[in-house]
From TrEMBL:
Keywords: Hydrolase. The keyword rRNA-binding does not apply. The lineage of its organism: Eukaryota, Fungi, Dikarya, Ascomycota, Pezizomycotina. It comes from Pleomassaria siparia CBS 279.74. InterPro entries: ACAD10-like (IPR052898), HAD-like_sf (IPR036412), HAD_sf (IPR023214), PGP-like_dom2 (IPR023198). This is Epoxide hydrolase-like protein.
Length: 274
């Protein structure tokens, strides 16, 4: 296939370290079955789940929300079905109590983890920027000014770059500077996998292309990277080309980007380890 006209990126788990890593660490540290937290988040419900509401900007990040998030992670019916389905127990056996999850600690662990640029994808972004129209389509949270984390520390959503000799040590802490288009779910009121979010992204990328004299952009001209299967499923249904970014495998995804773009994006040492 011809190279894409535009490349669209998810942020967490693609351009920065995945918040799913913080979830995995929390489950391991607290003897919670691996995958339960993500399962309970995805169960929503879509129209009223605490996680879904905060990512659409329909509520405020405050103690009331943390209580609602804890409730979403503690639905007995969801837990019982998960326990049986995933081989933790057998039908008819007693199911243990729903895990008691510290929703505030979990959330802030996720946010702190996802401030670190991914060591493979972030340099690829920098290399791609002069040659392609780059966009971000991310399910996000709007942070109130002056919000403190679970440790009482003023939270900053900016990137945390490693010091020199890291070649990106002096880069901006605002990841939006890496993109021509940045679409935040909490600010536009649409979250993936809503097809309208992909349509919006294609339109905005098309505007940039038209401004640069490169003509229109269709969904088929856009390559989308995400780490969540359902987001990619609906992106494909919307006509976008896709790359799945698996947890801990961003280097493999960058190799796929090389094939799609025809550019060399991995350094020699990184390439040799693939």
């Amino acid at each position: 296939m011809a190279p894409p006209k535009a490349i669209l990126f998810d942020i967490g788990g693609v351009c920065v370290i995945s918040p799913f890593q913080a979830i995995l660490d929390y489950e391991k540290d607290n003897n919670i079955p691996i995958g339960w937290i993500n399962h309970s988040i995805q169960k929503g419900p879509h129209d009223a789940g605490a996680w879904q509401l905060i990512e659409r900007g329909e509520c405020v990040l405050d103690d009331e929300w943390f209580a609602a998030f804890k409730k979403q992670l503690s639905v007995p019916e969801h837990w019982s079905a998960y326990w049986v389905k995933h081989g933790q127990g057998k039908e008819g056996e007693s199911v243990p109590k729903v895990p008691d999850i510290d929703s505030k600690r979990l959330f802030w662990d996720m946010m702190r983890t996802s401030r670190r640029p991914d060591p493979f994808m972030y340099p690829a972004l920098k290399a791609l920027r002069p040659h392609f129209i780059l966009g971000a389509l991310s399910n996000t949270v709007a942070f109130p000014d002056g919000i403190l984390d679970d440790k009482g520390v003023l939270f900053s959503k900016g990137l945390t770059h490693d010091p020199p000799p890291n070649p990106h040590a002096a880069d901006s802490h605002d990841i939006q500077t890496c993109f021509d288009v940045f679409i935040s779910s909490a600010h536009v009121g649409l979250r993936k996998p809503d097809p309208r979010a992909y349509d919006l992204a294609v339109r905005e990328l098309g505007k940039i292309s038209e401004e640069r004299g490169s003509g229109p952009v269709t969904a088929q001209d856009v390559l989308f990277l995400d780490d969540i299967g359902v987001n990619l499923k609906w992106a494909k249904k919307s006509g976008l080309r896709t790359i799945k970014v698996n947890l801990g495998d961003t280097k493999v995804a960058v190799r796929e980007l090389e094939r799609e773009t025809g550019m060399s994006l991995l350094l020699g040492e990184d390439k040799a380890k693939l």
